[in-house]
Write the structure tokens for this entry.
Amino acid sequence: MNLRMLPALGALVIGTASGGAAYAASTTSQVAACWKQGTTISVANCFAASGKEANDKLNRLYGQIMTVLGPGDQQRLQNARRLWVSYRDATCNAEKNLWDGGTGGNPAYLACTDDETRHRLDYLQETYRLRLQKLR
């Protein structure tokens, strides 16, 4: 390693907590709370639990949407869902790999999948809002 890079590397490591806070500012308040957990494992556990909750909500929403769509629209939504999962996984793996195998990679991946899932929930709720009103 080039010795001139050490101060920058130190600043990056020290700045990780503030970087997490900056990332958290762009996410939901529930997700942002995970960045405040302290230890890497606590952050990862928080994002794992939050991500599971978000994924469960997303799956329920997909189920509701499918009940108000015709067969053609159902197939298009299923295709979009598969592509979105590929997009989410590729995006979050890319973010994880920025950590070069470091301990921050797993929490970064979990935070990313949680955040992307919550954005997908918002998108689907808005896009299918009128159709979903028929269920109420």
Observations:
- DSSP finds seven helices and no strands in the chain.
